């Protein structure tokens, strides 16, 4: 009896303990309510919640951070967690003990399913096949058992440290992380028959989880230098997206629900939330930090465990017609033409017809899902059989007006038309080109054909978050904005290098619009609550709208009306308009809006279209808000943005990750165009008619070497007489080869700038002044001209400006003008110096001449005076030496006070004197003074030397007597 009592008491204590460790009961279910009565109903969950491990317990908390409750305790401090929503059960594994447990929402106790070892590294529940999968990092295995703990077996062996396993039962895929020399993401089918490596990384990967809504894999990666990020890819390892984010590696866990990603932060002890694609600033979910860091995070909601409509056939293929016979087993599928059944028999795979040599294409083949088409290299054209390529040759005879050359056929020469257009009945004219789409796809920017048959990637940026894109039809430049990189860039429509335009003071540029007439661009910044603008080169930036903005998203520009139109998804959602300068604001629509994200303008009807992402509605109205209509409702999932052309609307659907088309008036004819997107955002239709007023010939003459005509927004090239258009559709060749004489370009070419030749070749006599609607077409006082024959506009720029609309400063002209001014300045200075020097020289010459003449008038020169002095001195010395001491000249008398008139004749040369005898001397009754003798000799005999004068004299010393005449 004693023993029985002890057993009974122990059983009661064990039952009480199990009851205390069970899920909290009462009326509580997954979301706290039972749909039935007396606890017999099934659980429903109208509101999602977070389930996580905190300390040694499993807790739940609402996505708003409220109503935190403890569900199970104790469970251990290091656990792996998952749930089975339909089975109303929670599953966890204790890493330290190696035991796997489960607890039912309805039951009062937990159940031990399996005791493995201490090396469990991952746990996942298959809610369709009712399996539990786990990985052993130490043993390198993936194992599976039923949700009731039976039929345990090993699926995969000899793996390299597998961990963090996840399962997608609808696709029958297993995913896990592997840690070897490099980390990798692995995939296999549920049976473990086919294993493939999706991608490898040098960084450490953790916390693999699945986005069942968009069928993508998410994980965290940690670098050696402390960097970290959230990365994702599709089920094939493609379309990689990396979002840099500071994370804490220890005990990191994350889960996804709809557009948000939830993850644990070990440092702050909180659960954080952010957009899974665009990122942004993380928000704390729980109001107060927890005492310990939360781990093993899961979002509980039926959307996170979707059930397949046909439990056997893979829903990837819409051509599988049979439903599988039994749950958990592959059924039998039949595939349509162009597809083949996979080896597992669970889904249909595309047949690559181009890989087999029975496609019939002569030169090129391009595979598309379910079919293929033939292609030709440059310089070749496709014949009407759509398979054979022939070389394009110059046309002759009656088909000389073909703009792109001819193809030789059995019936003769046939005009070539570009892809997407058809030859009209005249046999020479091609129909207009079909539209193509420019799509921002978060990690890339693509150009796709309207039917989805062609796809070209212009920009690829795995770390980008590109939501906004637009293009300039004049220069064929594509402009795009990245939220993660916080930049605005551009690239040519044909590819090439990227130009960084704006990088400062950008936070979240989610909308972008290009004004192709006024040559500016505008963008919205939801984090700054502003609308900014700049030139197309990123210069002259300014804030256009700031007041009464909360979260501006989409934006469009109407250059002809000079209007900006944008959407605001703040607390008071609105569609609003203003002038290009931000004034004259007017509300277009405000009632019934929740999240108006995108908008577009139909320029042919001056009508506005916008979409509401939360409501799934597309509406339209006039530019003033009148005549508001609902175009489509609940047909396009989650529309983010849209574009209009002719009668069609192209809509980017975030729910199905597709581009869809509907009729713009009634919303009918719903079709999908392209589906291989990560997150299609902005959509732009590329066609000449979508942006009116754009003259394709204004930039570089449209690429034409001779005559350019702008038709439907496209440049149409033609040639002068005696020239034909070459096969490239741009250059012209002479009809008679080298014998043709080129016409002087000056007779038919006009330019808008003295530096850059970029305008149309028009006849000036046909030009008219632009209408008032284009009064601001030419900037900086440029004169606008309109050419009626070509329906085009051109500008005559003033000096110092250039460009198709005079929007650029002519730096070369300014430099030449500055150099010319500098040259003129130097020449002026040099001329002044020369004139000054000339004046100084003239003054010096005049002064010299004047002084010289003055000296000549005053007396003899220095030499003459010197000769006279020497003569006087010689005469004086000679006289003194030859005459007696006393000369009788002192006693001489002059009658009448004058000398005799014949006195000059008394002078004698030295020879005459020597030959004169004493008798001749006695004939003179008087003598001359030395000074008078010198003057007489200077006058009568200028060539006589002064020394000869010293040999003669008037007074002679002689022994003869001196006779006085008186």
Automatic annotation (TrEMBL):
Organism: Oryzias latipes (Japanese rice fish)
Transmembrane spans: 827-850
Signal peptide range: 1-22
A GO CC term assigned to this protein in UniProt: plasma membrane
Bias-annotated ranges (Polar residues): 744-754, 938-947
Upper taxonomic lineage: Eukaryota, Metazoa, Chordata, Craniata, Vertebrata
Disordered: annotated segments: 735-767, 897-921, 936-966
SUPFAM superfamilies linked to this entry: EGF/Laminin (SSF57196), Growth factor receptor domain (SSF57184), YWTD domain (SSF63825)
Keyword entries, A-Z: Disulfide bond, EGF-like domain, Glycoprotein, Membrane, Repeat, Signal, Transmembrane, Transmembrane helix
GO molecular function, one term: calcium ion binding
The protein's name: Epidermal growth factor
Low complexity composition bias: residue spans: 906-921, 948-966
Per-repeat ranges for LDL-receptor class B: 130-171, 476-518, 519-561, 562-605, 606-648
Ranges for domain EGF-like: 766-807
PROSITE patterns the UniProt entry points to: EGF_1, EGF_2, EGF_3, EGF_CA, LDLRB
InterPro entries attached to this UniProt entry: 6-blade_b-propeller_TolB-like, cEGF, Cueball_EGF_LRP_Nidogen, EGF, EGF-like_Ca-bd_dom, EGF_Ca-bd_CS, Growth_fac_rcpt_cys_sf, LDLR_classB_rpt
One BP term from GO: epidermal growth factor receptor signaling pathway
């Amino acid at each position: 009896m004693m023993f029985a009592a002890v057993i009974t008491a122990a059983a009661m204590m064990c039952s009480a303990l199990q009851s205390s460790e069970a899920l909290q009961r009462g009326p509580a279910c997954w979301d706290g309510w039972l749909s039935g009565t007396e606890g017999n109903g099934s659980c429903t969950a109208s509101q999602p919640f977070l389930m996580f491990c905190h300390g040694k317990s499993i807790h739940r908390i609402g996505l708003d951070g409220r109503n935190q409750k403890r569900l199970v305790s104790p469970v251990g401090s290091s656990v792996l967690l998952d749930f089975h929503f339909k089975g109303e059960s929670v599953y966890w594994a204790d890493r330290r003990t190696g035991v796997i447990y489960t607890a039912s929402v309805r039951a009062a106790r937990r159940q031990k399913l399996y005791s493995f070892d201490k090396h469990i590294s991952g746990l996942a529940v298959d809610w369709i096949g009712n399996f539990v999968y786990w990985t052993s990092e130490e043993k390198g295995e993936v194992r599976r058992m039923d949700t009731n703990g039976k039929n345990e077996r090993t699926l995969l062996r000899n793996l390299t440290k597998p961990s963090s396993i996840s399962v997608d039962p609808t696709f029958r895929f297993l995913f896990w992380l592997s840690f070897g020399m490099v980390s990798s993401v692995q995939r296999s089918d549920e049976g473990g028959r086919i294993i493939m490596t999706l991608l490898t990384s040098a960084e450490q990967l953790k916390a693999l989880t699945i986005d069942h809504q968009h069928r993508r894999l998410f994980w965290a990666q940690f670098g050696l230098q402390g960097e970290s990020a959230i990365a994702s890819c599709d089920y094939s390892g493609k379309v990689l997206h990396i979002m840099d984010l500071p994370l804490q590696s220890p005990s990191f866990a994350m889960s996804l629900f709809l557009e948000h990603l939830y993850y644990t932060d070990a440092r702050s002890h909180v659960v954080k939330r952010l957009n899974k694609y665009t990122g942004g600033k993380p928000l704390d979910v729980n109001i107060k930090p927890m005492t310990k860091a939360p781990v093993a995070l899961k979002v509980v909601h039926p959307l996170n465990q979707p059930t397949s409509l046909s439990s056997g056939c893979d829903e990837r293929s819409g051509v599988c017609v049979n439903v599988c016979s039994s749950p958990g087993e592959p059924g039998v599928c039949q595939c349509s033409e162009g597809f083949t059944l996979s080896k597992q028999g669970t889904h249909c795979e595309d047949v690559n017809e181009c890989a087999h040599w029975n496609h019939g294409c002569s030169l090129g083949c391009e595979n598309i899902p379910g079919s293929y088409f033939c292609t030709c290299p440059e310089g070749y054209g496709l014949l009407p059989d759509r398979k054979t390529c022939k070389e394009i040759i110059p046309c002759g005879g009656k088909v000389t007006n073909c703009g792109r050359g001819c193809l030789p056929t059995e019936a003769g020469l046939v005009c070539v038309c570009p892809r997407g257009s058809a030859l009209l009945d005249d046999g020479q004219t091609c129909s207009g080109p079909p539209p193509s789409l420019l799509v921002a796809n978060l990690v890339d920017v693509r150009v796709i054909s309207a039917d989805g048959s062609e796809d070209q990637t212009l920009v690829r940026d795995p770390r980008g978050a590109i939501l906004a894109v637009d293009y300039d039809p004049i220069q064929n430049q594509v402009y795009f904005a990245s939220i993660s990189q916080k930049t605005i860039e551009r690239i040519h429509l044909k590819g090439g290098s990227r130009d960084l335009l704006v990088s400062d003071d950008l936070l979240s540029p989610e909308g972008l619009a290009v004004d192709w007439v006024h040559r500016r661009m505008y963008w919205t910044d939801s984090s700054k609550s502003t609308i900014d603008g700049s030139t197309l080169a990123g210069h002259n930036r300014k804030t256009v709208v700031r007041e009464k903005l909360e979260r501006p998203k989409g934006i469009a520009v109407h250059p002809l009306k000079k209007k900006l139109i944008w959407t605001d998804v703040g607390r008071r959602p609105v569609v609003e308009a203003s002038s290009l300068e931000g004034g004259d604001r007017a509300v277009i629509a405000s009632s019934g809006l929740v999240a108006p994200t995108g908008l577009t303008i139909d320029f042919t009807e001056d009508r506005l279209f916008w979409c509401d992402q939360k409501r799934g509605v597309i509406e339209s109205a006039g530019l003033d808000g009148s005549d508001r209509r609902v175009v489509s409702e609940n047909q396009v999932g989650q529309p983010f943005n849209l574009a209009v052309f002719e009668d069609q609307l192209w809509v980017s659907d975030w729910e199905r990750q597709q581009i869809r088309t509907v009729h713009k008036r009634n919303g009918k004819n719903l079709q999908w165009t392209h589906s291989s997107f990560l997150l299609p955002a902005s959509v732009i239709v590329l066609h000449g008619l979508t942006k009116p007023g754009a003259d394709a010939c204004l930039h570089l003459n449209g690429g034409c070497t001779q005559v350019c005509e702008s038709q439907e927004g496209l440049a149409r090239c033609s040639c002068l007489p005696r020239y034909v258009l070459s096969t490239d559709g741009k250059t012209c060749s002479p009809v008679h080869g080298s014998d043709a004489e080129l016409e002087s370009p000056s007779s038919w070419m006009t330019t808008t700038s003295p530096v850059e030749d970029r305008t149309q070749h028009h006849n000036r006599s046909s030009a008219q002044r632009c209408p008032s609607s284009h009064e601001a077409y030419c900037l900086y006082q440029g004169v606008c001209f309109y050419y009626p024959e070509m329906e085009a506009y051109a500008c005559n720029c003033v000096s110092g400006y250039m460009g198709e609309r005079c929007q650029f400063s002519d730096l070369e002209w300014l430099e030449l003008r500055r150099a010319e001014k500098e040259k003129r300045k130097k020449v002026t200075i040099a001329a002044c110096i020369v004139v000054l020097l000339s004046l100084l020289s003239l003054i010096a010459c005049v002064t010299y001449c004047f002084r010289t003449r003055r000296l000549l008038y005053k007396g003899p020169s220095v030499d003459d005076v010197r000769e006279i002095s020497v003569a006087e001195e010689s005469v004086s010395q000679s006289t003194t030496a030859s005459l007696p001491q006393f000369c009788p000249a002192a006693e001489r008398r002059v009658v009448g006070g004058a000398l005799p008139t014949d006195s000059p004749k008394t002078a004698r040369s030295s020879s005459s004197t020597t030959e004169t005898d004493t008798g001749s001397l006695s004939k003179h009754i008087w003598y001359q003074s030395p000074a008078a003798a010198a003057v007489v000799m200077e006058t009568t005999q200028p060539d006589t030397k002064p020394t000869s004068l010293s040999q003669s004299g008037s007074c002679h010393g002689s022994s003869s007597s001196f006779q006085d005449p008186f």
